[in-house]
Amino acid sequence: MAEPGEEHRQYQEYRRLEDCEEDSPPGEEEEEQLLLHVTEGPTDSWHHIKDLDSFFTKISWHSPWNGFACVLLSDILELVQFLFVVTFSTFLLCCVDYDVLFATRPLNHSHVPERAKVTLPDAVLPAPQCASRLRGSGWLLFLLVLAGAVWLCRLVTALRRLVGYWEIRSFYIRALGIPAEELCNHSWQSVQARLLALQRRQPLCVPRRELTELDIHHRILRFRNYTVAMVNKSLLPVRFRLPLLGPVVFLTRGLQFNLELLLFRGPAALFQNTWSLRPQVKRAGARRALARGL
Question: pTM for this one?
Answer without folding.
Answer: 0.61
